[in-house]
Amino acid sequence: QIYWYQNQFLPKDEVRISPEDRGYYFGDGAYEVIRVYHGKLFEADAHYDRLVRTAEAIHMTLPLSKQELLDGLNELVKRNQVQEGTVYLQYTRGIAPRAHSFPQGAEPVLMAYAGDLKRPLAAMENGIRTVTMDDIRWLRCDLKTLNLLANTMAKQHALSQGADDVILHRQGTVTECSASNAAIVKNGRIITHPANHLILHGITRMVMLRLAERLGIPAEERPFTLDELQAADEVFITGTTVEVTPVVSVDGLPVSGGQPGPVTRRLQEAFSEAIRS
Ligand code: PMP
């Protein structure tokens, strides 16, 4: 596997990470995961914009232009011969002796790789089981930073309960999942948490809302409660790797009779259509 590290394309074994990289000490950096379909980056502009937004918010200046970055990522996809997969990229604040204060003059460190990943067809077909959990994260969940400890703990909690993922909530208001956004359907309307500081502004969420509009399915971006979640006609999640995946149970209780619902199915079909073109 070929990595892109500090502007060089190298086999994974030859990538040398400094122990003083601030990503390693502090999770001090930004990242993106971009889908590759048919050998092409999906929604690359939106991912780039979100990366820049995160970088600016944490006071980091990216050293590569948009064109340089996208050219590099496309080259990575080509060198790894990825047709269906993902690109992961991260920028850390740089290499410096450990101190909380931002280092003077340190250059951000870029690391990226591309790998094969099939569409999760079984989960998309059959749906996933979820458990609800307190959202203990900080108040800038809109930033895609490397600090993912709460997310990894949440995912592990789900697995320990025999579920596939968590649905997080703050005092009874549903936010999102460990690595995806959540939505419910009630009386034919999609409801999903507003894109504010409490959730990641998912690119797939945005694509889903765009498709819903095109299909004439009404959608509301507003907070919804755990009670609304339990009483929903349908529940689904969206994310780069999971696309639109139905949720068939919440805390052991079936959602929409334990079967993926019709609105979810329409969105899935529209999504499949969108990535075909
Ligand atoms: N929320 C969280 C916490 C995530 O980590 C992700 C994806 N990595 C998402 C939502 C979905 O975002 P996207 O559709 O851009 O992948």
UniProtKB/TrEMBL annotation:
<dbReference type="InterPro" id="IPR043131">
    <property type="entry name" value="BCAT-like_N"/>
</dbReference>
<dbReference type="InterPro" id="IPR001544">
    <property type="entry name" value="Aminotrans_IV"/>
</dbReference>
<dbReference type="InterPro" id="IPR036038">
    <property type="entry name" value="Aminotransferase-like"/>
</dbReference>
<keyword id="KW-0663">Pyridoxal phosphate</keyword>
<dbReference type="GO" id="GO:0047810">
    <property type="term" value="F:D-alanine-2-oxoglutarate aminotransferase activity"/>
</dbReference>
<dbReference type="InterPro" id="IPR050571">
    <property type="entry name" value="Class-IV_PLP-Dep_Aminotrnsfr"/>
</dbReference>
<protein>
    <recommendedName>
        <fullName>D-alanine aminotransferase</fullName>
        <ecNumber>2.6.1.21</ecNumber>
    </recommendedName>
</protein>
<dbReference type="Pfam" id="PF01063">
    <property type="entry name" value="Aminotran_4"/>
</dbReference>
<dbReference type="GO" id="GO:0046416">
    <property type="term" value="P:D-amino acid metabolic process"/>
</dbReference>
<dbReference type="GO" id="GO:0030170">
    <property type="term" value="F:pyridoxal phosphate binding"/>
</dbReference>
<dbReference type="GO" id="GO:0008652">
    <property type="term" value="P:amino acid biosynthetic process"/>
</dbReference>
<comment type="similarity">
    <text>Belongs to the class-IV pyridoxal-phosphate-dependent aminotransferase family.</text>
</comment>
<comment type="subunit">
    <text>Homodimer.</text>
</comment>
<dbReference type="GO" id="GO:0046394">
    <property type="term" value="P:carboxylic acid biosynthetic process"/>
</dbReference>
<dbReference type="InterPro" id="IPR043132">
    <property type="entry name" value="BCAT-like_C"/>
</dbReference>
<keyword id="KW-0808">Transferase</keyword>
<keyword id="KW-0032">Aminotransferase</keyword>
<dbReference type="InterPro" id="IPR005784">
    <property type="entry name" value="D_amino_transT"/>
</dbReference>
<dbReference type="GO" id="GO:0005829">
    <property type="term" value="C:cytosol"/>
</dbReference>
